[in-house]
Inverse folding.
């Protein structure tokens, strides 16, 4: 697992999520995968509700998680965000928080609520880079972002109003971002078809981790063979 491969290089591994464990048993799963310590919303003193319409703020996740690893010499921190989850049809704290930013946009109300939730995630990423900059760690840190699915809480019509790509056609709606960032790396765009299965082999290559590619379903995106 990615945790164990980094542990083999003496990284301190931790993982975080701003929700409870009643949906997935992450305290067990992450430990079994090699996370040295897993923190859920209660561990981080983040207020959360089991109501599906209400989700905690990912900005709070960053603020409460960073102190647990920022002073380590080498760290690998896994954060599972949650603010952007549906529902988008009904009013909610996060869905309505930034609606005013999109009042002049010709989007359906549900799409605007999704954009409001995305703004919270965007703020959280900004908080993370600010924290790393303040600690003098940004230049020596690689940030990896990926989404596990598209906003299926929006119907196709509403999603089309905000998507910057054609969602029609087989598999197109499932396109999600995968970003690897470090301020010293020259930006480059990869357009070939890929899968989340390729994330781990790609990172293993970039970090020169000790791994056997035959044991993984995916492949390194930069391997031309």
């Amino acid at each position: 697992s990615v945790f164990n491969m980094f542990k083999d290089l003496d990284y301190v591994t931790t993982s975080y999520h701003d929700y409870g464990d009643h949906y997935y048993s992450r305290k067990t799963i992450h430990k079994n995968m090699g996370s040295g310590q897993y923190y859920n919303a209660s561990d981080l003193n983040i207020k959360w509700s089991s109501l599906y319409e209400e989700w905690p703020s990912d900005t709070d996740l960053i603020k409460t998680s960073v102190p647990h690893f920022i002073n380590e010499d080498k760290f690998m921190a896994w954060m599972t965000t949650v603010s952007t989850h549906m529902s988008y049809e009904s009013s909610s704290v996060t869905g309505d928080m930034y609606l005013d930013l999109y009042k002049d946009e010709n989007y359906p109300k549900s799409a605007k609520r999704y954009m409001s939730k995305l703004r919270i995630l965007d703020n959280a990423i900004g908080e993370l880079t600010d924290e790393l900059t303040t600690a003098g760690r940004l230049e020596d840190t690689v940030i990896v972002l990926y989404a596990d699915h598209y906003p299926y809480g929006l119907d196709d019509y509403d999603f089309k109003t905000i998507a910057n790509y054609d969602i029609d056609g087989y598999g197109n709606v499932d396109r999600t971002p995968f970003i690897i960032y470090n301020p010293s790396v020259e930006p480059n765009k990869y357009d070939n078809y890929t899968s989340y299965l390729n994330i781990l082999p790609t990172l293993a290559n970039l970090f020169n981790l000790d791994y056997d590619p035959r044991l993984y379903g995916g492949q390194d995106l930069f391997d031309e063979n």
